[in-house]
Amino acid sequence: MDLTPLLSWACIVFTVGMFSTGLTDLRKMRESKSADNIQFLPFLTTCLNNLGWLFYGTLKMDHTIIVVNVIGALLQILYIVMYFLYTKLKRLVTLQTLAAAAVLICGWLYFTTFLTEGDARLQQLGLTCSVVTISMYLSPLTDLIAIIRSGNVQVLSFPLTVATFFTSTAWVLYGLQLNDYYITVPNTPGIFTSLIRFYLFWKFASTSQSLPSYKPLHA
């Protein structure tokens, strides 16, 4: 039985749902007219990651990867624009965005000019995207260590944790179905970090005075 179509839809639905958690931050910015207490770099790095995977999906002609990352990139660009409108640190945000654009242009030139057409370019691009995705999934580990020490899970988002778990699981199964380890391997850490977060919610949520609040911890 070919599960590829089902897994494809699962990847699209769960991933778009995960990206959409940023709409909560967008609403907060609009209501408060401020970007205070909202992190900018997760939006920027996720946008770069989306564009990298979009290039990979285009080279591989994988419509699932293309659709997911087109939607993801557009959402991240929206978050970036709205953040810029409401932040007081416009100079810093501009410099960070220009630096990201420079990295993007250099990467595009490398993969389109210095690498030959074919498997070599696809493999190096897949490896690069995989490394970036793994680093994004593992980056919140320092926050998790702090939560273990403090016993306070209010800085975590339970809906985002659920979305990350199902998204990572869907992509791992999709990658296994296609025998594409550049998809399977980088999404595996997302499952483990989500399980760690579930354990922390189970252990510490009862000691919190309120439900977990949203925070842009992009896995």
From TrEMBL:
<feature type="transmembrane region" description="Helical">
    <location>
        <begin position="125"/>
        <end position="148"/>
    </location>
</feature>
<dbReference type="InterPro" id="IPR047664">
    <property type="entry name" value="SWEET"/>
</dbReference>
<keyword id="KW-0812">Transmembrane</keyword>
<keyword id="KW-0762">Sugar transport</keyword>
<dbReference type="Pfam" id="PF03083">
    <property type="entry name" value="MtN3_slv"/>
</dbReference>
<feature type="transmembrane region" description="Helical">
    <location>
        <begin position="65"/>
        <end position="86"/>
    </location>
</feature>
<comment type="similarity">
    <text>Belongs to the SWEET sugar transporter family.</text>
</comment>
<keyword id="KW-0677">Repeat</keyword>
<feature type="transmembrane region" description="Helical">
    <location>
        <begin position="6"/>
        <end position="26"/>
    </location>
</feature>
<protein>
    <recommendedName>
        <fullName>Sugar transporter SWEET1</fullName>
    </recommendedName>
</protein>
<feature type="transmembrane region" description="Helical">
    <location>
        <begin position="38"/>
        <end position="59"/>
    </location>
</feature>
<dbReference type="InterPro" id="IPR004316">
    <property type="entry name" value="SWEET_rpt"/>
</dbReference>
<feature type="transmembrane region" description="Helical">
    <location>
        <begin position="181"/>
        <end position="202"/>
    </location>
</feature>
<keyword id="KW-1133">Transmembrane helix</keyword>
<keyword id="KW-0472">Membrane</keyword>
<feature type="transmembrane region" description="Helical">
    <location>
        <begin position="155"/>
        <end position="175"/>
    </location>
</feature>
<keyword id="KW-1003">Cell membrane</keyword>
<feature type="transmembrane region" description="Helical">
    <location>
        <begin position="93"/>
        <end position="113"/>
    </location>
</feature>
<keyword id="KW-0813">Transport</keyword>
